[in-house]
Amino acid sequence: MESAILQGLNPQQKKAVQTVDLPLLVIAGPGSGKTKVITHRIAYLIYEKNISPFEILGLTFTNKAASEMNERISGLLDNSVAGVTISTFHSFCAMVLRRESEKFGLKQNFTIYDDQDQLSLVKKLVKQLDFDVDNVTPRSLLSQISKAKSKMVGWSTYQENAGNYIQEFTAKIYEEYEASLNLSSALDFDDLLLKTYHLFKDYPEVVSKYQDRFKYVMIDEFQDTNITQYAISKQLSLASGNLAVVGDPNQSIYSWRNADIHNILSFHDDFPTATVVNLDQNYRSTQTILETAQNLISPNTEKFDQKLWTDNSKGQPIVIGEGYNEKEESEMIISEINNLVSKGEYSLGDIAIMYRVNSQSRALEEKCIKYGIKYQIVGSLKFYQRLEIKDLIAFLRLINNPDDDVSLLRVINVPPRGIGQKTLSILSSCAVDNKSSISNVLDQIFSGESTIEIKDLGLTKAAIKNLFNFREMIADFKGYVSKRSLPELIEIIFEQSGYKNHIMNESENFQERNENIRELINTAGYFSKENTNDSLSAFLESVSLVGDTDNLSYEGQKLTLITLHQSKGLEFPVVFISGLEDGMLPHIRSIESENPSELEEERRLCYVGVTRAKEKLYLLRSFRRGFRGESSLPSRFLADITRSQVVSWNFSEEKVTQSNNYVDYQLNQDEYFDEGPNYDIPDIPEYKDSEPVDEPVEFNQFKVGDKVAHKIFGDGIIIGCKALDQDQELQVAFKDGIGIKKLLGSFAKLEEIN
After folding, report:
1. Is 600 marked active-site?
2. Largest alpha-carbon pair distance within the chain?
């Protein structure tokens, strides 16, 4: 009679569960029951093989995953789960190091430095060594140190291999950084792994103790391990040979966190006796969605050959749609969601919108608010609640209304300009006493026409100087209001306030925060185009109305807005993926990179998004993105989806208003998809119902063969020109892997080069 633990498992799952006393590699495709296999294998070891729970170690990457695994095992084993160790890599290593701290001269109560602690230390060292090079920030130095540690490269080896001055300086910072950590009896997150590896390597009696304790080691999400984590896994299992790893190379999307896909790809080479189990039956998605995912991942070279299959129905075709710009793209998505929910086919909680970068949520949020759609953003603040957006808006509000003390207090010392809390308390008290705003107090102090005497306020000379400089800066910004456009004004504030340098030096996620501010600039550009009253005050009013969501009652189910990275491990009946354009997905960095593995990771990221969908999948793009109107090519990933799997989506706001529906039609030879791996550049379609474009500004008349430069895409050559009414449609072939772009001459701001 079959064990109860094996009941409900398919043949491949049973094989994975029952493989004991041998290395085991489980390639777990999306929706194939990975967690079920891990938990049932642990239960099988305890109940069927009489393995002590204390001899089992399960390692994963997040506390949430560890907690979920513990809960599932508890449901299978009742109280027997108490002895099983389920932990994250970092928590396990911290436990080992505290127990063995005397071996390497570290106090048992050592401090673990978080990201901000590390950054503060590096900034101090940079200041001490008096190093100042453009684009080399404390954050970038820390990133290089972390990357070196993840590859088990110490500062001395890094120094020996330094090839230029910046690398030599990085090595010096690395050396001083390590010395400072030692003096402080502190470790960073990379040290938790690296010190454990060296502890096991240098002290055989220590590693032997943990090998005796943990005879069965299981690693979840193995494709996300770095070199050090894999090395520790091998050290722990060397004596028993019982190392079981579960993962999917096609879902390896964290190289920027130093994950190494080659760990899982080379596992069988490292363990020739390993049993390889392929979990290829998918329980989540329709056949069409799986076929689409298979075609999408097929061009990658760094992968495990796995063909997913399912007993689920064929399902509906993939819907592929194009909006004129991101506003129309968002309108398409939210209108279709309204349609699905109003028909009773799905609830909001069944639906997710996924995107490559957080800044894409802005247009989607505005449409959600417009249509009264309840939504949640997973892992991120709503656009207008993000720190950098609130800061820039506060600058604008202060310029528009100098008496706005709330906005003044928000930005007067952001970025830090030597105006501390004591100074602000003095100014606030003075404002209360004089029944005026703080700005008015500053005006009186520095005008010399007031009864307020600076010397009576108790301000230091440094504080007075800093307050004067801040007041002058705001006055300069105010002077630009009547001379510059809204986007230009925000750009000036971003640069001249020091905010750009501030987030570049202070923030671990500069790229994301910079993209958010660029999206705010785009929003201002759209506002100026669409409103006859494009004053600063009108723009701020529109922002306030859009951003005022704090009082909405979000009871019950909500639509999910989520990045593709954050979607891993989740599933939804209906998935919309937005922004399928070259430069967005795949991201421009991967296109420009000389390393082809970066583009392969972008493809895996798209694959992760597609395989989140259970029943319906929509892939959306914008013909133009950003208010400047630069056109974009469809994502190269779309070329790998066969025509038989898709229908295309026509859209205009007029049609949605009248019928709240869309029209399906079969793709033809002129559409985006070819039979083979390449695709033709589509002709620019006519958008009769789309938003009007502003009157074009003056621009150079170009001809085929002209060499040009673009501020984003770099150097290129004109390969096609088409005369339009007072404009030119230009086809430009750019260098360095950018490819061919279609641009409007009036908006592209191309410069002719010799």
Report:
1. no
2. 97
